[in-house]
């Protein structure tokens, strides 16, 4: 069953300021479907709505739910020089509000109008592409692209509109190095000419998020370093994890909630894309997912909850069930970046009874990342000297300023939201200066783990084919895991689907 939750979720969760990326709701999957990314925020959406909100409700039948598509127009500043911004959530516009509050001269000189539209059914991308192509006064001077669809704007046809950071930020390359920006984010923001045209302001490197009490009971240790050795190993594969799964099962625990929890890790752990030199390519890390799924189902190591649904959220608060017996069976771990902890698990594991404070993070079996939002500046905006001043100062403040007044530091320390939630940022230099203790993690300082996770992550496998092929691969993996087809058939089915898209086998 696929549920289209659409922009209701995005705009409700974005009633906050500056969280990490979550998922693209149109890709929500009950089992192992591709998990995408969308931006979610924690605190109240901020800004003045100067144009009417437009909403269109779409009634769907069967298993799909009613959806609402919403577009907001928000303005910041009172100046005469107008800046157009396009974003898929109030997150980046909220940053503009803070920037204007801290820079009165910018607020009196510029007026930023932000068009905010969730990407439900591709709504945001459609609006952005149309505006970029049409050009003129309606074109965005600055726009946001998320991990699922960043490549067209940095390396694809739409990259023609993106201004190299070096064209509007002095010594951009040197500042990237000084800030120790996560390399995978730089790679995704670099065009085919080797020029940086987009930067992500988040760190979305992934860790293993585990129950300390279960680890202590089953393995005799709960310290992150020791748990990583016992559960994840140092082999860069899943062998040690599978051994741990057996021990967890013997004690009555599920290793993970669903197969989908493992796919995002295997997908992003790959170092080669689906298509290499025009031919289909199944990276060893992605192929490993086939046998990992089979082991999970055959040995009943996961609770088969699906993902992004009530059963998955229940597993986060210790209320999951064994699919074979329907008896209560707690889940040992999840895999994800800091945003998964702060803005998803934190919304469900809320007190001692539901495991709040019992979670910890450690190095995962293989390196991966999940999500992120990149800032792109239009070449036309940079050509205007007046606009260039704002674009330069704002983008640098968001992505490269490592001082204690820059967004990176403010976000990492929790100074940007009422709850004081500390979050991971793209600058490892900033993360190394801040103690990332989180209550949900029993006040563990998570930042050293996420710095390591960021350096462990690679973007080499990211490609334009992901949206078209991920779901096909995971569907066949699920059929293989459940005994509907054998492994050879699963691979051949995937290759046949690739051939239908014109990819050489």
Can you lay out the helices and strands and say which pair or pack?
Layout: H1 7-13, E1 48-58, E2 67-76, E3 81-87, H2 91-102, H3 104-109, E4 110-117, H4 123-134, E5 142-146, H5 151-154, H6 172-179, H7 183-188, E6 198-200, E7 207-211, H8 212-219, H9 224-232, H10 239-250, H11 260-269, E8 275-276, E9 279-280, H12 284-298, H13 310-316, E10 333-336, H14 338-343, E11 359-362, E12 373-377, H15 379-383, H16 385-399, H17 407-412, H18 428-433, E13 437-438, E14 444-445, H19 447-456, H20 466-481, H21 487-500
Parallel strand pairs: 3-4, 3-5
Antiparallel strand pairs: 1-2, 2-4, 5-12, 6-12, 7-10, 7-11, 8-9, 13-14
Please summarize what this structure is.
By secondary structure, the chain is of the alpha+beta class. The protein contains 21 helices and 14 strands.
Explain what the structure shows:
With 505 residues, the chain is of the alpha+beta class. The chain folds into 2 domains: 71-204 and 371-433, D-Maltodextrin-Binding Protein, domain 2, CATH 3.40.190; 207-368 and 460-500, D-Maltodextrin-Binding Protein, domain 2. It contains 21 helices and 14 strands. The strands form 4 sheets. A 7-stranded mixed sheet has the order 1-2-4-3-5-12-6. Strands 10-7-11 form a 3-stranded antiparallel sheet. The chain is globular.
Distance between the termini: 31 Å
Residues in helix, %: 25-40%
Number of domains: 2
CATH superfamily of the largest domain: Periplasmic binding protein-like II
CATH architecture of the largest domain: 3-Layer(aba) Sandwich
Rough shape? globular
Unreliably modeled segments: 1-67
CATH class of the largest domain: Alpha Beta
Largest sheet: 7 strands, mixed
Average pLDDT level: 88
The radius of gyration is 22 Å
SS-based class: alpha+beta
Give a count of the beta strands, DSSP E runs of length 2 or more: 14
The CATH topology of the largest domain is what?
Answer: D-Maltodextrin-Binding Protein, domain 2
Helix count, per DSSP?
A: 21
Strand order of the largest sheet: 1-2-4-3-5-12-6
Strand content: 5-15%
């Amino acid at each position: 069953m696929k549920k289209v939750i659409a922009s209701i979720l995005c705009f409700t969760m974005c009633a906050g300021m500056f969280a990490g990326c979550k998922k693209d709701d149109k890709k929500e999957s009950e089992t192992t479907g591709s998990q995408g990314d969308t931006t979610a925020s924690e605190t109240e959406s901020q800004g003045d709505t100067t144009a009417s909100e437009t909403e269109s409700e779409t009634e769907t039948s069967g298993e799909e739910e009613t959806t609402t598509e919403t577009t907001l127009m928000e303005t910041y500043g009172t100046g005469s020089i107008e800046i157009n911004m396009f974003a898929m959530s109030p997150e980046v516009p909220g940053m503009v509000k803070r920037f204007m509050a801290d820079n009165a001269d910018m607020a009196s000189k510029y007026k930023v109008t932000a068009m905010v539209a969730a990407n439900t059914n591709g709504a945001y991308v459609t609006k952005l592409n149309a505006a970029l192509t049409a050009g003129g006064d309606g074109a965005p001077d600055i726009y946001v692209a998320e991990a699922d669809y960043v490549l067209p704007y940095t390396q694809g046809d739409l990259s023609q509109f993106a201004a190299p950071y070096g064209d509007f930020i002095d010594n951009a390359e040197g500042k990237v190095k000084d800030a120790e920006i996560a390399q995978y984010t730089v790679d995704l923001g670099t065009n085919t000419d080797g020029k940086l045209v987009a930067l992500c302001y988040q760190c979305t490197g992934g860790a293993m998020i585990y129950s300390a009490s279960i680890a202590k009971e089953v393995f005799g240790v709960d310290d992150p370093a020791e748990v990583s050795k016992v559960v994840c190993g140092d082999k860069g594969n899943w062998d040690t994890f599978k051994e741990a799964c057996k021990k967890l099962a013997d004690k009555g625990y599920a290793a993970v909630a669903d197969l989908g929890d493992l796919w995002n890790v295997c997908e992003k752990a790959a170092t080669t894309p689906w298509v290499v030199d025009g031919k289909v390519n199944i990276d060893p890390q992605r192929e490993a997912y086939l046998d990992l799924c089979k082991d999970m189902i055959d040995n009943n190591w996961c609770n088969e909850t699906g993902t992004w649904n009530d059963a998955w959220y229940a597993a986060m608060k210790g209320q999951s069930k064994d699919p074979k017996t329907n008896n209560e069976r707690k889940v040992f771990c999840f895999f994800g970046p800091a945003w998964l902890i702060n803005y998803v698990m934190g919304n469900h594991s809320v007190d001692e009874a539901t495991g709040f404070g019992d979670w910890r993070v450690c190095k995962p079996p293989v390196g991966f990342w999940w999500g992120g939002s990149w800032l792109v500046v239009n070449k036309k905006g940079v050509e205007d000297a007046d606009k260039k001043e704002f674009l330069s100062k704002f983008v640098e403040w968001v992505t490269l300023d490592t001082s204690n007044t820059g967004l990176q530091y403010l976000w990492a320390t929790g100074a940007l939201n009422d709850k004081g939630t500390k979050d991971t940022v793209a600058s490892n230099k900033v993360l190394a200066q801040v103690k990332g203790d989180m209550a949900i993690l029993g006040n563990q300082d998570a930042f050293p783990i996420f710095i390591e996770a960021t350096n462990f992550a690679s973007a080499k496998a990211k490609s334009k084919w992901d949206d078209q092929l991920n779901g096909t691969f995971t569907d066949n993996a699920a059929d293989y895991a459940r005994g509907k087809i054998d492994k050879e058939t699963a691979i051949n089915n995937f290759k046949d689907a690739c051939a239908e898209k014109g990819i050489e086998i």
